[in-house]
Amino acid sequence: MEANQVNDQVIKSLLYQKKVCALNKYQYKELVDAATQLGLVKSYSKMKYDGIIYSIGQLVQLSIDGNRDKKTYGKLIGFCNLQVDEYLIPMIKVQKYINKLELPSKLKELQEGISEFELFQSEIEEWLFCTQIDHEIRLITIKEYEEMTIQNERTYFTRADYNVEKDKFTPPISKWNRICICNQISNPDKSYIQCEKCLKWLHYECAGVQAQLAQDMNFYCAMCRKK
Ligand SMILES: [Zn+2]
Ligand SMILES: [Zn+2]
Predict the structure, then answer these.
(1) Ligand nearest to the CA of 185
(2) What predicted TM-score, i.e. pTM, was given to this entire model?
(3) How far is the centre of ligand 1, averaged over its atoms, from the C-alpha of 187 (Å)?
């Protein structure tokens, strides 16, 4: 029984630490592993939290404990309850979706080209506390996102997956749609104007157009004006 006692202590010390500050991603896993070994884990296919029923496969916005401003995203891939003494501790397993802020910042091109509302499915799986769920989000394609008429803070888009360990996008950046005479990765956060003749989309800055005037002017790009 000695092994169990050790595990029991692991769980209690992790839960105690959770009260004091946030756990790191290894500690969440340690917690679930220790509880699983002790048979304290019950798995479910759905979970009710804060009056809302969550199911496997749903995407959610999550708060990192101790930092309510820092958001992270994930697909729900597992639910369990840890039974510790008289307490039931609901936990979720998520497949992480990476946002702009979590990508390595080395490429200026990416900083310019990636939207605040863009997510990349990663290979990382993590356990977290159920209480970290903020709300469900909707994930659509970049094409659907660009066609959306009203922006909604719970709608995100994706155009690629990102493997964190290999630092690799699929499809690769070279296959992403580019736009304008500057040939930049298309970023729906930016403002574009369309040439009436060749129908190309250009950034306001690259077109030399002021935002206030763009609404009601007939715009022809430099190439079309020359003809
Ligand atoms: Zn441009
Ligand atoms: Zn044109």
Answers:
(1) 1
(2) 0.84
(3) 11
